[in-house]
Design brief:
The protein contains eight helices and four strands, in the order βαβαααββαααα. By secondary structure, the protein is of the alpha+beta class. The longest helix is centred in the first third of the chain and has 23 residues, at 51-73.
């Protein structure tokens, strides 16, 4: 079986003699008439991009972006972005659901009693895993006093004394009420 190349017919104007011409002149018989050849609709060349072309373009742009990102950041093909779904520990925590511990149980998760346990921090009744930053919340870190306890009052007031490291918010709203001066209360303008 031999392979041969076949040329497609081109849509061009060609000159063909007209057989319906009644003149039997030698001039008219020898001069061909022009007509336009049209192709079948199935043989027409489509100028609109196909779905495969769009996929190729998108994959090319993705490849270009990841390559450029790797050379610019020298470490990450995603420009330094690491989504939450790409971290297995985050997925496990999401599937596990919220953590509920008593204050005594929470105090065990401060990073000092058992180094293999995670470091937890509670704020307003929600427990957060801060094990990803042991240099901040672990033993010897600048925020180690927050670890293993409910530090809601300290976060709200900004006072990090040991007395304020609890979850009791009673009286906090009074600390933030604006104090009106007695002079401003007198609208009558009396002096």
């Amino acid at each position: 079986m031999s392979s041969t190349l076949r040329a497609r017919p081109l849509a061009t104007k060609t000159q063909v003699p007209n057989p319906d011409d009644d003149d039997n002149d030698s001039d008219s018989a020898s001069s061909p008439r022009e007509y336009e050849v049209t192709l079948d609709p199935s043989e027409r060349i489509s100028r609109t991009p196909s779905l495969l072309d769009l996929v190729r373009i998108l994959l090319g742009l993705l490849f270009l972006s990841t390559t450029l990102s790797y050379f610019v950041t020298s470490s990450s093909p995603t420009w330094g972005y690491r989504p939450a779904w790409s971290r297995p520990a985050r997925i496990r925590a999401w599937l596990r659901g919220p953590i509920t511990l008593t204050p005594h149980q929470l105090s065990l998760y401060n990073g000092t009693h058992h180094p293999h346990l995670p470091i937890y921090l509670a704020l307003n009744g929600s427990i957060y895993d801060v094990s990803a930053s042991p240099h901040l919340y672990g033993p010897g870190g600048p925020y180690a006093f927050f670890a293993g306890r409910d530090a809601t009052r300290a976060f709200v007031t900004g006072c990090f004394d040991s007395d304020n490291l609890n979850g009791d918010l009673r009286g906090v709203e009074e600390m933030f009420l604006p104090l009106d001066d007695e002079e401003e209360e007198d609208p009558g303008g009396e002096e």
